[in-house]
């Protein structure tokens, strides 16, 4: 054997391997010569190299595998010797003459394997003898590898059902007893490693134990592969014995690994039928054991089992799997008073996912899990552990992902209570997850009660009252969040006007108290949703709710006015201006003249007091003219007042071209083809002449400023307006006025220098020629114009 020394590990391994190789060579030569005595001699010397205590488990394994390969050759030689007449009993006794106990036991296991193969004695007797004899090695590392060798060579010789070694004297019970006994002894050796050596080397020892754990776990794998280990034997013998050893060893590493081994190697239906036994051991484990991961893996396995085998779902109810898991988690948390909040939340998250997979129809189970989680979180305030927060979001997302329906999640009474334990930032993230789920699945929220519950869940996006001072929010993220809230509004819908009005009233309450910076995102879709409600109001005289309970157009328009009034303070006057005009048009369709006039008045006030940018004024004036043109509800007095204001605004625009275009656009306010009461040709002509005057003034100003004739484009635009009204039959627009304008444009010197204007004018003339080709009154009218 290698003498003790202080050389490094590599040199020890190299020296051991060299001696091992030399003795293996002589052993092989003795085997080739059929010399049993020398074969035993050199094999014992070879195996003596395994007595070293200088190698780490990793290096020792290298040496062990060399020995394993050579022992396979020796086993074959022993078998051939028995065929040549050597008594296997004598051989079994002969190998025990080796001087050192470790080589002796390796040789004894090898001979024992041959002994079993010859069937000259019951397999159980030999296996029992071998497993007991191996107690002679109590050094943890050497003992583990010795028993690992015993497990390997005996694996195919166990008296299992259907095995050639099964008989009257040998049953599967004997095989189970042998494996359990070997497992127990191996675990004791493995645990003992933790307590050898100084405390400063604890980390190194734990690493070495991690490298050796598979040697112990293979015993459980062997048990799971035995045909004779049915559910009854597993429940009555195997599981209790294994759990007893796991609990009694009181070792954190062993308990965690072996419980996980049980979950991984035995069949899912066995776990289902023995849940109470397995879970009963969990509270008895050491407090430092990561029971969170173990139970999570168990629930994950059972969930997958249920997902792949729908026919087993009744058994989950039959064995009360949910109740057992829920109770076990409660007991584990109670037993481990210092359990981190992350572990507790992870356990409940796994239990909820298990419940949703196995019992998707039992919302009471899911709510019970959430309630247990709330109970565990109570008194802890906002969670500041990042990983725990992430796991809590995973727990809250599980019902959304399973049901693809937020409405179902809203039925869980404890759901919003769990959300309360999230910090402000995470509440925003969770709210975004909820909204995305609604949009992805096109989920309609149809009652005011559910809308209220939903907005309690997503208040992180619609309310900034509880945000910490100084918290900076990325503007792009903020806009994306608020746009998602705006899209959500269109998913809140009910055909019943009364219920829909309740819904929009709830939205108003939340939005107006949610801070001014959000209003420009949330008010417009709320206005649009409310305007849609107006279109669905019952026809007068056909209201099933009665006059008192009815939602009237007047009431809704008052509601709209209240929410739009908040926008100029944001400030978003342009947005409020547009919404007032939209509401005016809606009032027009409802024949509500006073309300329509009030909305127009509000729009005009905003135009005068808030909209000062010249480009914004042009755009706003175009909207005023376009909306006013479509209004039919106004009487003569109100219409004249609004029209007069619009024309007055047109003349006050900053730039002459803008003035010109606004003035000729106002001409449309005095001639509506489908309304004889609004056909004032004189005022149409007056607008067009005023536009010509302004265009001429603009051209002169351009000539003065730049020293060249201004663009003729404005004249061509006015010509097109002349042609429009001429075609509509406005008496005041005569052939002479059109011809004189065409002549004026042709005489402009700037035309050749402005290709776009020249092209525009050519297109206009081409249009006139096209109209002349038509038959009927239009063609005849255009024939009168001489170009």
From TrEMBL:
GO biological process: intracellular protein transport; retrograde transport, endosome to Golgi
Annotated compartments: Cytoplasm; Endosome membrane; Golgi apparatus, trans-Golgi network membrane; Prevacuolar compartment membrane
A GO cellular component annotation in the UniProt record: late endosome
Membrane topology, from the record: Peripheral membrane protein
A Pfam family this chain is assigned to: Vps35
Its job: Plays a role in vesicular protein sorting.
Record-given protein name: Vacuolar protein sorting-associated protein 35
Organism: Arabidopsis thaliana x Arabidopsis arenosa
